[in-house]
Description:
The protein is of the alpha/beta class. It has 19 helices and 11 strands. It has helices at residues 8-17, 21-37, 46-53, 71-85, 96-101, 106-119, 137-142, 144-160, 181-184, 186-202, 225-238, 274-288, 308-311, 321-329, 335-348, 359-366, 375-379, 383-403, 410-416, and strands at 40-43, 62-66, 91-95, 124-134, 165-169, 210-214, 248-251, 293-295, 316-319, 420-425, 434-439. The relative contact order is 0.15.
Amino acid sequence: MGRRPLDVETIVRDLVMTDDAAKKQQLAKKILDIAYKKGVYPASIHELYMARGRGEFKGFTVPACNLRSMTYDLARAMFRVAKKNNAGAFIFEIAKSEMGYTAQPPVEYSAVILGAAIKEGYQGPVFIQADHVQVNAKKYAEDPDKELEGIKALIADAVANHFYNIDIDSSTVVDLSKSDLKKQQLHNYKVCAKLTQFIRQIQPRGIMVSVGGEIGEVGHKNSTPEDMHAFMAGYKESLRKGLVGISKISVQTGTSHGGVVLPDGTIAQVKLDFDTLKTISEIARAQYGMCGAVQHGASTLPGEAFNKFPQTETGEVHLATEFQNMIYDSKHFPAALKARMYEWLKVNAAGERKEGDTEDQFFYKARKKALGQFKKDIMGLPADVRAAIAAEIEAKFEFLFKQLNVGNTKQYVDKFVPLKRVIVRKRKEGEAVVHDGEGAD
């Protein structure tokens, strides 16, 4: 008798628990092979967004969810909600910074998401996104080429591991000291164009990676249509002729990542500028053929705000901190583990504490930094504990999918998004990675 094949959950667990990079890659390849056989395809949302830019459908906002912890369990919950609501337009993402402090490199994050899809019997395109591939303004000022080389290395790693959606965030190098809007956006559009060109060089054959740009850094000055026009004029001039550009544009409308924390640890109410979102989204579609504007830092907004995103035809909304908060604050999350994590933070994240911060403020802002250190402890929690926490967050996903009106979007995804099987061939060290894309079987 032959040996029974391993359950995908066992492979996912082994991948998360190992620190051996080669073994992670091997297990990820195993998951990808199973995914293709089961009809699960990592994909780019680019063609769907272009169709929206042409006005072929409207009325929903794509949720892009950053899963910082319990990624396998929460992705399974999201796939269950998607199947129940016939949803296809939703994204799993992780930011450049999150990859570090949650200890989830691209190879692990994408494989865990695909493993969750397999486990839940989900079929079709799965959108995995590198969120906030961000330029460090200080490092860029010191040595632009070195900073961009580091970002290119991250993008190459992400694309090689089936992230076919990349959000470039060079809004950090906008210079508001300039009076001329185009001069304010100069470094932003030049960097965004350079990185777009790099992505087009390395993307797999047959896949047009979805690229996003950003005109206003979250937590800073609110964006305007004039900012958008200035950025796009410079971007189009800077992008090599004939290359496909960005499919969406991130704007600042009054939010901040994680929200503004009050002394008691609660989050201050935010007044979001939905008029700006609506106006810039309309301009993005009508004049530039994109899907619309993207809203960052939205997960801690009050529940009644979410149905306004599809009403204003916002293209995409990014959601992260609230899912993390729900894990930490769940009655099912072991108190002893949380206490250990907080003790670790007191020593290892002391630099996060600002003068005048209360203990509640410090822990709220810093606790994301403990997720990578305790990743294996969380993955090792009993299955019933993880299932109970995931069930609470599944209800949140259900609420968000309904409010953002992404039910029944699978029809558009199936119509516009091509399925491609991508083979990654690694060359010798220092040489390029080769991708071959084929049509679906």
